[in-house]
Amino acid sequence: MARTLKIDNVLKKRFAKKEQKEKREGVKDLRVYFLIVCEGEKTEPNYFKSFPQKVGTTVYDLTFDGGGISTTKVVEKAIELRNKSIQKYDRVWAVFDRDSFKPNLFNGAIAKAMANDIGCAWSNEAFELWYLLHFYNRVTAMHRDEYKRAIERAINEKIAISSKSKKQEIFKYKKNATDMYATLIKYGHQEQAIHWSKELTKQHVGSNFASHNPCTTVYQLVEELIGKSEELNNLIAKKYDLGE
To answer: What is the pLDDT of residues 174-196, one digit of tens each?
Structure first.
């Protein structure tokens, strides 16, 4: 599935210079290849597939895999697919939750990802924590079963504020919904979610990630998908020789 990377202003200027210089030769779109392996079959893939597909001239090619496998298996599959693929991926990500997995399995999966240069978008306890952070800063532990009610309450409060109708719509959270990205953009605040996610990670130290609750690193993958990752932008600049 093709997607476009939103490039920061510095990168845009670099590419603009190169584009003007080689315009007559026909410069191809700047393309970045992603492999995203998810623990969930639909919730996470549906969310990430919904990001804007075209911004500027840089195109994302996103490949999704996984579903219905454990934390360790997600990482192992990401490594396997990357190593066997004919396509050279620029970024490879494993997406999984703490859920009810034993601490040693959860911690081990993260350690294995880090040791094998696999991006790790993990959440403790559940991916829905990322959704909730679009509305308020959750700083105390929450069981994964509580997220559904909390998300519904937060979104319905926003609907009530913005609705002019006496018979306003009632939002019901569906785990495998295909419109969560659009709903979060309409009623939530993505930049706020990124900020609060970063603040949560600062509150935890050490490698016992299973005890880091609440916490999520999904924001790191999101920043790459919206063009706000300095590391990825530098990689793109180097790949396409976008000099100063």
So the answer is: 988 999 999 999 999 999 999 99
> Max alpha carbon distance in the chain (Å)?
59
Displacement of CA 92 from its chain's centroid (Å): 12
Calpha distance 176→114 (Å, rounded): 28
Q: Quote the CA–CA distance of 185 and 141 in Å, as a whole number.
A: 25
3-state secondary structure 115-152: HCCCEEEEEECCCHHHHHCCCCCCCCCCCHHHHHHHHH
Going from the C-alpha of 98 to that of each of 27, 197, 223, 238, the distances in angstroms are: 44, 16, 22, 35
Q: Please, what is the end-to-end C-alpha distance for the chain in angstroms?
A: 31
Beta bridge partners of 60: 3, 32
CA-to-CA distance for 16 and 23, rounded, in angstroms?
A: 10
Q: What is the pLDDT of residues 50-107, one digit of tens each?
A: 998 755 566 778 999 988 888 999 999 999 999 999 999 999 999 999 987 889 999 9
Residue 134 in tokens = 């679009």
Kindly give the residue spans of alpha helices, DSSP state H, lying in the chain: 9-22, 43-49, 71-84, 103-115, 128-132, 147-162, 180-187, 190-202, 218-225, 230-239
* Secondary structure letter of residue 23 according to DSSP: G
Number of Cβ within 10 Å of residue 163's Cβ equals 12
pTM (2 d.p.)? 0.86
DSSP state of 188: S
Q: How far is it, in rounded angstroms, from Cα 157 to Cα 134?
A: 13
